[in-house]
Amino acid sequence: MKSSVYVDNNATTAVAPEVTEAILPYFTEHWGNPSSMHNFGGSVKRSIDAAREKVAALIGAEHPNEIIFTSCGSESDNMAIRGAVDAIGGHPHLITTRVEHAAVLGPCHYLEDKGFRLSTLEVDEKGNLDLEKLREKSMSGKKTVASVMWANNETGVIFPIPEIGTIVKEGGGIFHTDAVQIAGKLPISVRNIPVDLLSISGHKLHAPKGIGALYARRGTKITPHIMGGHQERGRRAGTENVPYIVGLGKACELAMERMEKDAQHERNLRDRLEAGVLATCKGARINGDLESRLPNTTNISFEYVEGEAIILMLDDVGICASTGSACASGSLEPSHVLRAMDVPRSMLHGSIRFSLSRYNTEEDIDDVLEKLPVIIKRLRELSPFAND
Amino acid sequence: MYFDYAATTPPNEDVLKTFNTVNRDFWANPHALHRPGMRAESLLEQSRKQVLSLLGSSNEFRCVFTSGATESNNLAIKGAAHAYAKRGRHIITSAAEHPSVLYVCQALAHEDFELTVLPVNRDGVVEPKVLEDALRPDTTLVSLMHVNNETGSVNDILRLGAIVKEKSSAVFHVDAAQSVGKYVLELDGGPVDLLTFSAHKFFGLKGAGALIIKQRMGLSTQLHGGGQESGLRSGTADTARAAAIAKALRLSLENRAEVFDRVQSYKEAIAATMQEIEGVDLNGTLENSSPFIINFSVAGVRPETLLHGLADKEIYISTVSACSAQKVAESSVVLATTGSQERARTSIRISLSALTTRDEIETLCSVLGPVIESLRFKKK
């Protein structure tokens, strides 16, 4: 993969070399079971605690034991939603949005099928929520569990989580946010904002796949999703995945140290990419609120062409991008996020997401800018709908 | 000197090499459309096939990768109980199961499922007749372990499974966390519907396991989302982890027979030594158990004291399963096996692996007696 240009970092990222280095001793030397009573495992336990502190620091959690390690972002989302609903008991009212990740919509729809009331909030063309609608739903009189993502994986649009959390809490609800895409990219803190539960995923911030975390504010009750041993203070059973936990800790530390620099670097590259595409490709437009967006993400629609065709042709010339979420990319359905934003039909199918990381270079962008316009032009010539 | 391999094992060097190579060259999201994604996907599918073939399945099963045995057990039990709830709400397990089976079954008992917990005999195994008598027309799930993680007792899975299939329409789940990589399993044509294992028990990585599922069998998913792993387990699949599982399993099975015999002789040596120490009782039997695990009760010494006394000599053993180590004072498995609370409170576990050497066993055997004696003496 070295020779290719990888601009699909919202799907997954390369593990940072510093993270790999931090992980390796936990495979070769400190491989004990941290739950064992002897010291062989005991010293490993301290490394887990150190990693927990680093994850807590990245999101501004006050107490490290508010961090529960999980096997991935999807597990964190499932555990947060189903765990909170189960712990409340009865039939709380669920609130979410149309643009959430499948790992949030999945458990919400599952619960809806079981007879729970689910309110799914709409977004406008820029991908923003109507907070008054949220207020209305939160005040419905019933206990609510609301799950609203912090930043969107397809468009990068950032929701005003401090305000959203305040509204949900005013209604007495439990508030979960899927922060998988924003964590490590922009500063976030749960310290002064009313978030009860927050999901993060390792492989979106240069840690390995197969590790995630759920922040659960002290006092927030959640029923464990995976039961068995007493690990993670009885909230998540299973032998701790020590190397990956250490890796997640290191990745969080690294992200924190480099955040300002990385964000600026990604923003510069992203803006250059967008300006270049708009200048060279006819019928292109950027989707989502340009004012409130992740620095690394751009979602661009090209009129009258198929997104999948663009991806495959880009792939032929060594450029890895995507149409939207990798989780759904097996299907040919247009993105549920873009549909929710009422992207015009002529553009809906021709949308591409470029997502950058600290490892992208100006040459990567030049390469995309050299090859993309040619591909778009060729596809347009083939399109029965294009006029020119 | 480490004698706690039932808790976890160090990753094999070649497994680590595979893991590192895949992470370096195939780290793309296997669900992505571009070539690096497709290459990762093809490797993921190849790993799946290899795991199945190593477990004796060519076409009757599929393999769902999970974060470990605990998740696999949760998915198997909750997944099957809920998927077949319309047919019946009676589930069966045994008193000697791992907490990730027992607690999940107990949780189901709280949500209007009916649970029968079978006793085990003095060998630590479920007797076929006891299982047969417990089966009912509304039994939908039987979950029994292959090798016990504390005593090493081996359930006759083929016989028990045959009874399940003959006398009921229940799904048969086997927690094989302590036997995969050590025993030859022939899944195709057998009575097992669901099989759990975890790679870190056979020199693979932690956070890596699988649930093997009979083709066309429905399970109610526990992780909703992107629909990965045929919709049974959402979450971005970890290609490196999958490839490492396949590699670890292949390597473990390659020299399995030689390891099995060698470790069996070690276990016999330990048992012979222990028999000579007064007030030491073997929990379970020597015949009907795995060579890799041996469990004793040592009268008059608190197991933690013994554990620390041995740790002072850099010998690491354990008391109960690591999954319960910090919570309970007595072993529920030893209690179920011996019926004696005293023995359950004084039990220790010694577990071996391919890495255990004869020298280590000799040292262990020479140290056990004196350490136990000196601890007893101190107490007086």
Structure write-up:
The complex is a heterodimer of chains A (388) and B (380). Chain A has helices spanning 17-23, 25-28, 39-58, 73-88, 102-113, 131-138, 161-170, 242-280, 307-316, 336-340, 345-348, 362-382; strands spanning 5-6, 67-70, 93-97, 118-121, 144-147, 174-178, 197-201, 212-216, 284-286, 297-302, 319-320, 351-355. Chain A is of the alpha/beta class and 388 residues long. In chain A, strand 5, helix 7 and strand 6 (174-178) form a beta-alpha-beta unit. The longest helix of chain A has 39 residues, at 242-280. Chain A is globular, with a radius of gyration of 21 Å. Chain B has 380 residues and is of the alpha/beta class. In chain B, 41% of the residues lie in helices and 14% in strands. In chain B, strands 1-7-6-5-4-2-3 form a seven-stranded mixed beta sheet, sandwiched between helices. In chain B, helix 4 (99-110) links the parallel strand 2 (90-94) and strand 3. Classes of the chains: A alpha/beta (388), B alpha/beta (380).
